[in-house]
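Researcher: Go.
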Amino acid sequence: MGKIILVTGGARSGKSSFAERLALKIGDGRAAYIATAQIFDDEMNFRVKLHRQRRGDNWTTFEAPFAAEEKISAVGKNFNAILFDCVTLYVSNFLCNADTDDEKFLYDNLRGLIGKLIDAAQSSDAVTIFVTNEVGAGIVPENKLARRFRDLAGLANQMLAAQADKVFLCVAGLAVDVKKLSEVD
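Model: Structure:
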C-alpha cells in the first residue's frame, strides 16, 4: 500500500525544494516528477525552468495537467518515490476547464478528482509526495473566481491531509511535520 506525504506552505516557502530532497531520499537517489503546470505565458515558462534547473538526471518527468491519477498508477510501478507538483495548479486546471458556475457541481467533482488521486497514491507501491500551496491564510479575495479557487484548494488540501501519513508545513525554507504536532494523545 502506497503512502502519502503532503507538503504545504506559502509561495516561495521552500516546499518544492524540501519535497524534492525528500523524494530523492525515499527513492534512493531517483524519483518520478509529475508536473501539473501548463505553460501559457513567459512567466510560467520561467517558473518551470527554475524547477527543472534544480533537478538532474535522477528525475523522470511526466506531465499530467489532467487525469494525473493515471500517471500515479503507471509510474508507481517503476519508482519508489513520486513527487506531484502541484495540487493547487491541478485545482486551477480543473476550475478553468469546468465551464460552470454550479457550486455543487464544482465541489462534488473536485472531491471526485482528489479522491482519484488519493486512491491511486494509496494503491501504488510508491510514496507519493503532494506539493500544494496554503492559500487560505490571507484576506478574503474580492472576486468570485479567486474565492472559489481558494475554497476548492482548501478542500483539496484538507482531503489530502486527512489521508496523508505525514504533512509538512514549510516556512522560510524550514519544514515542520504538522500532522505529528496535531495528533491528540
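Model: The longest helix spans residues 103-123.
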